[in-house]
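Late entry, written up from scratch paper. The run itself happened at the end of the previous shift, but nothing got recorded in the book at the time, so transcribing now.
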Amino acid sequence: MYSLLSLIILILPSTPNIQVYFEEDTLSKKLAYFISNAQYSLDICFHQFYDYEVIDSTLSAWNRGVKVRVITEHDYINYNGTQELEDAGIPVIDEGIGGNSTDHRMHNKFIIRDFRDQDTTNNAVWVGSFNASGYTHADNAILVKSYALSRIFEAEFNQMWGDTGDTPNGVYALTGSNKHDECPFHQVNVDGTLLEAYFSPYNRIQNHILDYINLAQSEIDFLMFTFTNYAIYDAMGMRFMNDSVMVYGVLDYDLEHDWNRDAYNYFNQHNIPVVWDNYDSGHGSLLHDKVMIVDDSIVFMGSYNFTLRADTSNDESCVIIHSPEIATLYKNEFTKLYYEEVNEQSPHNLCRNKPVILKSNDLLRLLQHKSFTILRPDGSIIHNLYNIKGVVFLKSDKTWQKLLIIR
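Output as recorded:
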């Protein structure tokens, strides 16, 4: 198991039937290509589904006879791309179908391809954090060719659709907190890789996340768009403080909403090396991933943000992948994003004064009386304050001081 701070980055392929994609892989093009390969059916359950390239691919599939069903979020059902699907005759519903409410989010981002024919060898699922909205953000998705995984996602789709056929049935359709678990199972094996699939709110995904946090042996890494669930970040903090499990993370920075401030303050106060993405709010894109990596071997991914609403009311999906090889792909993406932010927020850029020469014993005495954070030149926090030497940075609130520590 290699450290986040290792300079060696391994590059490994996905398995033949599990492909991993990140935004650099042009996700809209990848999704449009996935749709274009449909032969019989497409069951689309997407929060935002109106990107012109993805819409064109869906319309092309419909026009050549592919059966298409679409569930989307109420707030976006009237957007131009989605309306093009309806105008073409494709059945489209939102989470308010029948007696269901639109007070929650239909936040899924998955598609089941070719499940509704008689061939069990051509089924595939696309799932991830990526919205087909036309915007480029830091996102991820997986494509899994598996009849068993398709069965799980099809059961969730049909419950929300209210039927197994082409026409939705509002009498039986269930969304949000009205749903119950109709999945035939939750674990499948693909190419020797164990996958778990869960849905909100009935599977209480938070509990699965907490279980794996508590089982972590050495390291937890995360990329998170919205992180407001105190139970999850407190569990990470407890493992860090009590069991020396390292926790690294990147949080999306939203100056307007500031959703993640409490989580960031919690991590910062406990010297846990979590950083902001878009620190200056000027990049124009979001860190939209919802990813957690445990011990470089288990990956949590999907539409599920670490929020209470994601757990108790929204329509969400989460896939847990047990694979060191696939975890390496996610770890490479995490490491790239983490160090982009560490370098941008580098103490060298935030503190340009000349260093104060200080003996190591004097530093320890100073820290006994005041609340400071000590950082290495790369921006990572120093947790063991003994045997420090060389250049470090002392941070107190917004005040920075460069120190040269000598024996």
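The radius of gyration is 23 Å.
(Scratch paper discarded after transcription.)
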